[in-house]
Amino acid sequence: MRPATRLVYLCAWLGFALLPWYLTEGMSLTGLDWLAGYPLGKAGSGLALGLAGEARWLLPGGAMLLLAGLAWPRQDEQRAASILIWAGAAGFALFFLQGFAIGLKGQGIPWLASLFGSAGATQRGMGPGAFLTIISLLLMMCHGLAYRGFCRGDVFTTSTIGLLVLLIGLFIFFPVVTILKGAVVDSAGRPDFGAFADRFFDSSIWGLGCLTADVSCGVAWNTLILAVLCGFLTTLFGLASALLILRTGMPGKTMMKALTVLPIITPPFVIGLALILLFGRTGMVSNLLYEWVDVPRSRWIYGLPGVLIAQVLAFAPIAFLVLIGVVQGISPSLEEASQTLGAHRWETFSTITWPLLRPGIANAFLLGFVESMADFGNPLVLGGNFEVLSTKIFFAVVGAAHNEGQAAVLALVLLAFTLGAFWLQHSWLGKKSYTTVTGKGDAGLATPLPRRVSWISTLLVVPWVALTVVIYIIIVIGGFVKSMGRDYTPTLEHFLTGFRIDFSRGMHFEGAAWDSFFTTVKLAAISAPITALIGLLAAYLLKRQTFHGRGALEFSTMLSFAIPGTVLGVAYILAFNVPPIEMTGTGIILVIAFVFRNMPVGVRSGIAGLSQIDKSLDEASATLSARSFTTLWRVVLPLLRPALVAALVYSFVRAMTAVSAVIFLVSAEYNLATAYIVGRVEAGEFGLAIAYSSVLIVVMALGIMLIQFGVGERKLGRRSADTKAAPVAVGGG
Amino acid sequence: MTFIAARKALLAALAGTALIGIGAAKAEGTLVLYCSVQEEWCRPMANEFEKATGIKVAMTRKSSGETYAQIKAEASNPRGDVWWGGTGDPHLQAAEEGLTETYESPKKAELHDWAVKQWAQSKGRTVGIYAGALGFGFNTKQIGSRGVPEPKCWSDLINPKLKDEVQVADPNSSGTSYTMLATLVQLMGEDKAFEYLKALHKNINQYTKSGAAPAKATSLGETTVGITFMHDMVTMVVNGGPVKVVAPCEGTGYEIGSMSIIKGARNMENAKKFYDWALTPEAQKLAEAAKSYQVPSNKNVVPPPQSPKLADIKLIDYDFAKYGSSAERKRLLSKWDNEVKKLPK
What we know:
The structure holds two protein chains of two kinds. By secondary structure, chain A is mainly alpha-helical. Among the domains of chain A are: 3-148, no CATH class; 205-436 and 451-483, Orthogonal Bundle (MetI-like fold), CATH 1.10.3720.10. Chain A contains 30 helices and four strands. In chain A, a hairpin with a 5-residue loop joins strand 3 and strand 4. Chain A is globular, with a radius of gyration of 28 Å. Chain B folds into two domains: 30-132 and 255-308, D-Maltodextrin-Binding Protein, domain 2 (3-Layer(aba) Sandwich); 134-253 and 327-341, D-Maltodextrin-Binding Protein, domain 2 (3-Layer(aba) Sandwich), CATH 3.40.190.10. Chain B has 15 helices and eleven strands. Chain B has helices at 2-19, 39-53, 64-73, 88-96, 113-121, 140-146, 175-188, 190-203, 213-220, 230-238, 268-278, 281-284, 286-289, 320-324, 326-341; strands at 30-35, 56-61, 82-84, 100-101, 126-139, 166-169, 204-208, 225-229, 243-246, 254-262, 295-296. In chain B, helix 2 (39-53) links the parallel strand 1 and strand 2 (56-61). Chain B is globular, with a radius of gyration of 23 Å. Chain B starts with a helix and ends with a helix. Chains A and B meet through helix 18, helix 22, helix 24, helix 25 and helix 29 of A and helix 1, helix 2, strand 2, helix 3 and helix 4 of B.
């Protein structure tokens, strides 16, 4: 065995023989009451409980662990590999099977439990010991595969693939399968395909009545139209801003950069509320138009136009974040070459720059499209009678009809759309090369934009920025006046209700919002680095390693993005409320939900970034005999800084602003800001909702600044037009 | 260099924060309360109960539909103890599905008949804690500018002059609106009720998702008329909105806000203590301070002066057992979907 494998083997024993096997109530690092009776009792270790006969079903897995020890002294790697692969896989499987077979009273899988010789036994959810053992067994199997020469014999690569597959299987596939089962069973739980067909082909989903008469179309068409428009417009605005900021001498760049980021750090509902206050029937703009030019007041904002405006405002910045990395990464040398050969600016742009932008554009469109499909807050506030899948699913679950079967069917439709978009994007990009960051000399200056492109971009971006500014003015004012739209008396009342601090007896956080506020910030700060790490690792594997099932893995990383938040939330409750993995009511379930819901952005931005970085850089590193971990850490990661920033920022922000996914997962102890704001909006207290949102905006802005400061910038040759010579070294940092 | 050092320090600090444990909650001497009214009312209920008994309350506020969905999903391993507040239908449905526990409180004798009836119909699984009548409100400024007489009855709402001026929630998503559907069916008979709903459909500008949303929209003038529970409209009036609340002249239905103990509650004793306490006058008086103007179920509580007086409203004899059952609900909702919602405007 190699030293790394020995370490893993010891970890497996640590988990099995020493750590508490089960999840124990009141577990904490400060009080030790919960350890009573150790090594037996509630917090007993797997080995002790197994030998004492309290949990005999743990012993077969333990035997496999013992068996794997045979590989310890072996010099012959091929023999060690066989032992590790088989013992690791068998132990992994046995521990999992016993977990699912034996659960709470009346749960679990009886016939499987009797195979373990323990019919009728019960056990609690897996705890630290169980997880450490199972993961170590998996790693042992992966190490064995590496000994056999999988992934060029690289232990790090096989282990990472193994872990990713396990995590995705556990936290994406398992819950989703649990809920989608609901689509094909009737209320009593029996399979019923007739009911499935009825629900699936219902005219409320696929109806085309709106083409001929004044009725609404099927909810599927609505969603699709909205998402396509949203994807198109967000990409357009994102690209225009990225080009303007990076390729022109436009004034006010810094302000614009800040402004384009504002909408993503805005909690849901707020943009919608501001749009109503502006363009609603009694909104400010509508009032002005009515009084000055006699435009009749109408309710046009409620429906497709309103939702689309709100979504474009909210999601174009995501497209911008993706595209700015891509535009920045385009090597000026190619453009300079084109100009040297006599091409005009426009020719250079349309034949060199534009084609190189394609991966970025495809990714940006995909994100806008999928974001729109999963968006819940804006259709809720502005949808009017324009129904989309995400809200319909939510109300199928929580509404008066409580129709979970319908929810599952709608979720399937939504899933199909998103995956379809993913597939289309894939086939459009094809197998062309978009590499522009190479190890070769690269010291050009970016070509200025052709005039027509900068004009069009300006015409697009300026009104959009103006609207954003107006909306944020409303949000700022909204928190400080009595009732926006009716009573503009200045007041601090809303902030005091939410965020009063009593200093009379030391510092005492009295305001109603503090609890949820602290929880939100803490959970977001924990989940962001995990999300970025997993996302970028996955991107690296998908782009740089070849292994069987890579396409399937890429597909499954996108899956959680395609699943609407509501569905994911309910799925998580159904899947993780009972053993073997029992974690509802904890903060962990929220962190995991955030990580796996936001991971796709890390993956997408990582992939977009990696497509630009020449593989020869990795190969150079490998030739100099660096292991793949070293290459990843010293060469690839520094070049991926924009992607890392995007992933960190995105996951931090989304953790703070997620609604539909978490509304079922919040508990008394772990309540979140957005769930609180939803309650305020429901109660019609827009003032407090807006005040709370503006506090969140400030906090998120600070968070983003910290992230940018913490990660630093990528230094790529001489890319900016100023003459300060930056070092040409590529692996800086 | 200092920049890099600072960055490293920052990363280390972040990693440190991430290591702070987030474990499972302690479950002794506590009560997990699922609350389905507004935050302002949930919060004092939890605090005052803590003060009165010393039991620590962990409270989660969610709408009644969300809470029902959660209790159902958690059924095999319940997390909550008591479900307090929210319209009666989901409570009755939870009772029908055996998700909640039977309990007879010693305070039952102090309750109004309608609250006890709710208890009896659910075979002891849920009890009434407040009642609110269905009605509508109109924006006084908008109605004036439109030259329409002030509506007083259900029949006034199908006036063609109010085209696109009435707002109500979608009964598929909102218990409020389902109460309207069931009320009209009981008031007019099913056929006439659906005729009426089809006529009303032409005047509806939006079927909202949330039941109380039309109240806010009426107050802001985004719609002229909003159909909601009357106490939701009263809150808008108290907050200074140009709104007038109407109890329809033909008569109207009502909701019974309910409370249930969750089956398999981990803190059953505390759950019963809360149940008894929530039915006392002291607990029910907390509503008024929270700007909630429902009628309390304890006979000894004087309803807030702003509350719509149930005695002045022509209330129908609402059949909660029939219209709260899942079969009847499914039938009415799918009939409404097919015969009303799909109609062109």
